[in-house]
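Researcher: Let's do a round of design. I'm pasting the structure tokens now; please hold your answer until I've finished.
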């Protein structure tokens, strides 16, 4: 999760694609060109141990666009694919569901 946040902050879209599960990976990735990622807060984790095949991470990522602050609150689901963790999908604003 932290490495994917860093990839968003650096605009490392090839890394993001490489760490996305093949069944849900988008054909192209783009970011708001004016976005500046400014912080990551991990709220909770579930599973994801050394022998696990699935894990969840709930987080809030903070970013700014043209000086205006925003946040992304998601509960992400990761699964192992080819022995490596891959982002499968996520639920935005999980407290609202």
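Researcher: That's everything. Go ahead.
Model: Designed sequence:
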């Amino acid at each position: 999760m932290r490495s994917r946040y860093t990839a968003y902050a650096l605009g490392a879209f090839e890394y993001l694609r490489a760490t996305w599960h093949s069944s849900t990976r988008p054909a192209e990735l783009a970011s708001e060109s004016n976005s500046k990622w400014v912080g990551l807060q991990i709220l909770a984790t579930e599973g994801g141990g050394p022998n696990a095949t699935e894990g969840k991470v709930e987080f809030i990522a903070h970013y700014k666009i043209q000086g205006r602050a925003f946040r992304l609150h998601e509960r992400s689901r990761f699964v192992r694919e080819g022995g490596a963790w891959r982002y499968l999908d996520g639920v935005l604003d999980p407290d609202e569901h």
